[in-house]
Structures are given as C-alpha cells and as structure tokens.
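Q: Sequence in, structure out?
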Amino acid sequence: AAPESESAAMARRARWALAGHAHHVLLRTHNRLPLLADAEDRTLLREVMRGCAAAIRAEIHGLATLPCEST
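A: Exactly. Output:
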C-alpha cells in the first residue's frame, strides 16, 4: 500500500453532485491495465457497487465492465 502522503497526491478533483439528476461515471485504471481478471472479479465489483449505492441511497441503472481500450 502506498504511504498516506503519496495516495493523497493522487486525489481526484471535486465533482458536482446534483441530487435527483443522473450521473455518468467512468473509471479507468492506470495505463489502462486490466482490473478485473474474471467473472468472479466482476461479480465482486457489482456487489461492492450495490452496497455503496445502498449506503448513500443512490440507484445504479447500468454498469458495464469493458476490456481495456487500445490507445
């Protein structure tokens, strides 16, 4: 794990959050390296996303996991 000071340097910019409006969220890995190795990883991601959404009373209307795009 990275030291706390190192991970703090990689924080994302603040985003607008408008209650009641749809948000499109796109996440990519560093250098677009693969994140999910198999179906088990994809299932775990879906379960974590559902849990996080429930914790903040958000709804997920779609989730796609795509292989790395070529640059």
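DSSP finds two helices and no strands in the chain.
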